[in-house]
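Students often ask why inverse folding is considered easier than folding. One informal answer: many sequences map to the same fold, so there is more than one right answer. In these notes we will look at a single instance of the problem. The structure comes first.
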C-alpha cells in the first residue's frame, strides 16, 4: 500500500504542480505482430526493453520500426521531438527524451511538452522520483503506473530561468559522479581479471617457485601412490569385516539381508596422450584424475523422491545449488529435513570440510567448502567431493575455480540447454598434484592475495553505495531549491504555469482539428475485406479491378486476388474487360 506523499518545503518563488499539468500525457500502442505490413517501416518504435542498460539522455529509435499502416491501425501514435518517455511497467522509471519524432508501445506514459516547458528539468526530476512513482503504481502480477497516476505525480516547479540553472549544475555534478562510478566499476572488473591471473600463476608454480627451490629435497611427492596404498588397505579391512559378517549371517536364521561385498574403488587410467594435452607442470608436480584422489557423490537418486520432504523448519539444513556460488559456500536461505531422513540417506550426509560442486544449471562449476563440523543434507544439483588424505581442499577448490580448472570441467560437461556434468565425468577431471607442503604454501599465498583483493572490493562496494547516496543528496538539493541561487521573481513561475495551461488547451484543440481533417481526407480503412465485401461497401456503382485489389485483403498478393476473383466470378458483373476492367 502506497504512503501518502508529503510535500516538502520549497522556495517561495517556486510552486507545486503535477506532471499532467505541465504537458500532454499520451500512452503508446503495439500494432498486431501478425500483420507483416505493420512492421519494418521507417517510424521508430520504442519499448521498455530498448532502455535496458541504456545510459543516454536522448533516444532516437529502438530495435524495431513500424509502418504508417501500423501506426494508423493501432493505438500507437507519433510522439513529438522533445517529449519525455517514461516506462510505466516492467520496470517503472526508465526515462529518456525523444531526439526526434517516434512512437512507443503501451509500456510508456509519454509527456508531450508545451512550448514553455523545459523537458530536461522534468527528465531529471522523474529520474529522482522513481520510488515515488513506484509507490503510486498498482497491480498483482507486476506493478504498473496508469496514465492517471502518472499525471498526478507531484513536481516542484521553479521559475524557468532557474530550471536552466538547475539542469546545468545537475548535469555538471552528475557527470563527475558518473565518471567516478565508471572508474570504480572498471577497477572491479580489473580485480576479477587479477584474481584469475593470480590463480594462473599459482597453478603454473610461479608463486611458489623460490619456496620450492629451497625445499625441494625435503618434500614428499608420493601422494598419489600413498592414496592408492591406503585405499587398498581400507578395502582389505572391509573384506575381512565382510567375511566375518557373512559367516555370522550363514550361521544365523538369515532373517536379515545378506551382507554386501565391498568394492575397491576403480583406479582411473591416466593415458600419456591425455597428459600431453595439458599444460606443463613444475618439477615433481603430477597430473592425476580427481576420481583417483576423491570420492564424488550426489544425492541417492530414487531414494530422494521416496523419503525427502523439504520443510521451512527442521533438524538439518539442505544444501542446494543456490548455496554454492562463485564466491564459495553461502549458508543462507535453507530448506530443512528431519534427522530421520538423514539416517535413511547416509550418502547425502555432510559432516563439514567437504568440497561441493554445482553440476547442473547456470552455476555449473561453482565450488564451495562446507565449514568444519557443520552438518548438512546434500540437496539436488550439488555433488559432494570427499578428498583423500594428502589433498588440501582449499587447494583443489582454488584450482577448480581457476580458468584452467573450469576449462577442464567444461570439457567434460554436456552441451545441453542447462549444461551439466555427470559424477563419472567429474571423476575424470584432471588436477595438478604438488606435495602436501607446497599445496599448503600455495593456499597460504592465495589466501593472502585474495584477502587484499577482497578488502579493495569491499572498499569499492562501499564507495559505490556512497556514490548513490551522494546522487540522492544532489537531487534533493536540486529539487528543494538549495543547489543554485534562486530567481526571486515570485510571479514568473505562476505566469509560466498559466502559459503552459493555455498552450495545452491550444495543442488539444489543434489535435482535434487535425484529426477531423485527417478523417475527411483519409479513405475509409477496410480491414481484411474480401472482393465481394469491397464491392458491397463501395459508394461507387462500379469499381476498377485494380482499385478492388488495392482495398482487398489481397493487396500484397496479386495471385491470391485473381484466385479469389475466379471463385466469386458468378457473383459479379464485368462491365469492361482488359486493362480498364470494371466490375460491380
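Output (designed amino acids):
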Amino acid at each position: 500500500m502506497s504512503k501518502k506523499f508529503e510535500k516538502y518545503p520549497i522556495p517561495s518563488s517556486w510552486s507545486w504542480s503535477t506532471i499532467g499539468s505541465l504537458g500532454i500525457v499520451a500512452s503508446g500502442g503495439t500494432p498486431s505482430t501478425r500483420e507483416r505490413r505493420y512492421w519494418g517501416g521507417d517510424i521508430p518504435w520504442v519499448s521498455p526493453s530498448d532502455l535496458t542498460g541504456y545510459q543516454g539522455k536522448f533516444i532516437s529509435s529502438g530495435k524495431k520500426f513500424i509502418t504508417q499502416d501500423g501506426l494508423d491501425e493501432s493505438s500507437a501514435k507519433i510522439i513529438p521531438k522533445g517529449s519525455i518517455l517514461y516506462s510505466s511497467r516492467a520496470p517503472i522509471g526508465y526515462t529518456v527524451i525523444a531526439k526526434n519524432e517516434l512512437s512507443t508501445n503501451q509500456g510508456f506514459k509519454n509527456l508531450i511538452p508545451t512550448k514553455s516547458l523545459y523537458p530536461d528539468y522534468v527528465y531529471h526530476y522523474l529520474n529522482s522520483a522513481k520510488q515515488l512513482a513506484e509507490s503510486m503504481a498498482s497491480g498483482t502480477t507486476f506493478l504498473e503506473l496508469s496514465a492517471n497516476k502518472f499525471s498526478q505525480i507531484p513536481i516542484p516547479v521553479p521559475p524557468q530561468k532557474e530550471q536552466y540553472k538547475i539542469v546545468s549544475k545537475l548535469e555538471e555534478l552528475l557527470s563527475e559522479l558518473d565518471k567516478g562510478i565508471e572508474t570504480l566499476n572498471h577497477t572491479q572488473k580489473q580485480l576479477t581479471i587479477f584474481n584469475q591471473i593470480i590463480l594462473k600463476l599459482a597453478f603454473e608454480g610461479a608463486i611458489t617457485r623460490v619456496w620450492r627451490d629451497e625445499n625441494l629435497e625435503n618434500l614428499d611427492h608420493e601422494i598419489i601412490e600413498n592414496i592408492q596404498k591406503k585405499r587398498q588397505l581400507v578395502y582389505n579391512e572391509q573384506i575381512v569385516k565382510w567375511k566375518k559378517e557373512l559367516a555370522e549371517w550363514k550361521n544365523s536364521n538369515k532373517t536379515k539381508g545378506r551382507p554386501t561385498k565391498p568394492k575397491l574403488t576403480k583406479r582411473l587410467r591416466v593415458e600419456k596422450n591425455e597428459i600431453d594435452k595439458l599444460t606443463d607442470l613444475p618439477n615433481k608436480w603430477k597430473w592425476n584424475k580427481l576420481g583417483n584422489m576423491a570420492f564424488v557423490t550426489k544425492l541417492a537418486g530414487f531414494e530422494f523422491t521416496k523419503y525427502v520432504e523439504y520443510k521451512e523448519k527442521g533438524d538439518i539444513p539442505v544444501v542446494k545449488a543456490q548455496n554454492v556460488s562463485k564466491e564459495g559456500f553461502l549458508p543462507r536461505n535453507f530448506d530443512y529435513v528431519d534427522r530421520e531422513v538423514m539416517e535413511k540417506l547416509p550418502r547425502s550426509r555432510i559432516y563439514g570440510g567437504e568440497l561441493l560442486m554445482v553440476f547442473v544449471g547456470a552455476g555449473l562449476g561453482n565450488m564451495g567448502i562446507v565449514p568444519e563440523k557443520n552438518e548438512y543434507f546434500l540437496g539436488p544439483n550439488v555433488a559432494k567431493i570427499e578428498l583423500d588424505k594428502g589433498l588440501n581442499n582449499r587447494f583443489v577448490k582454488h584450482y577448480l575455480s581457476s580458468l584452467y580448472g573450469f576449462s577442464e570441467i567444461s570439457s567434460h560437461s554436456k552441451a545441453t540447454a542447462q549444461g551439466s556434468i555427470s559424477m563419472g565425468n567429474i571423476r575424470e577431471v584432471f588436477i595438478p598434484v604438488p606435495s602436501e607442503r607446497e599445496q599448503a604454501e600455495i593456499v597460504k599465498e592465495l589466501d593472502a592475495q585474495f584477502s587484499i583483493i577482497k578488502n579493495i572490493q569491499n572498499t569499492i562496494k562501499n564507495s559505490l553505495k556512497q556514490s548513490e547516496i551522494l546522487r540522492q543528496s544532489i537531487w534533493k538539493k536540486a529539487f528543494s531549491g538549495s543547489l543554485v541561487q534562486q530567481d526571486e521573481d515570485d510571479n514568473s513561475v505562476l505566469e509560466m504555469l498559466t502559459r503552459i495551461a493555455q498552450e495545452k488547451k491550444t495543442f488539444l484543440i489543434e489535435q482535434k482539428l487535425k484529426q477531423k481533417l485527417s478523417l475527411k481526407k483519409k479513405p475509409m480503412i477496410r480491414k481484411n475485406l474480401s472482393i465481394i465485401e469491397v464491392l458491397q461497401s463501395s459508394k461507387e456503382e462500379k469499381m476498377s479491378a485494380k482499385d478492388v485489389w488495392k482495398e482487398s485483403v489481397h493487396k500484397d498478393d496479386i495471385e491470391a486476388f485473381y484466385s479469389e476473383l475466379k471463385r466469386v466470378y458468378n457473383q459479379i458483373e464485368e462491365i469492361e474487360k482488359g486493362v480498364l476492367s470494371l466490375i460491380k
